[in-house]
Predict the 3D structure of the following.
Amino acid sequence: MNLRAIVYASEAIPGLSNGRIHDLAQSACRFNLQAGVTGVLLYDGRRFFHYLEGPEDGMAIVYARVLAARIRTSTTTARPGCPLMLEIA
């Protein structure tokens, strides 16, 4: 089994409530478990930073779901072997 990892950062849509984030995180947790994917999601009230890893087929499904979610205005994905640089304000 080939494993894959993805790291991305994104800007949250304005007015995203903590309750909605909690609900989405719970749903994603259940979905990711079924796909064999695990990771870490950080949120600072404005931006998300997400690390995901798992089998290639599970990652394809999970990352497509991530990109389709309407909770962010932009997403920057790190290329393999390249760091993802974020400005911390």
Notes: The helical segments are 18-35, 56-68. The beta strands are 3-12, 38-43, 47-55, 72-77.
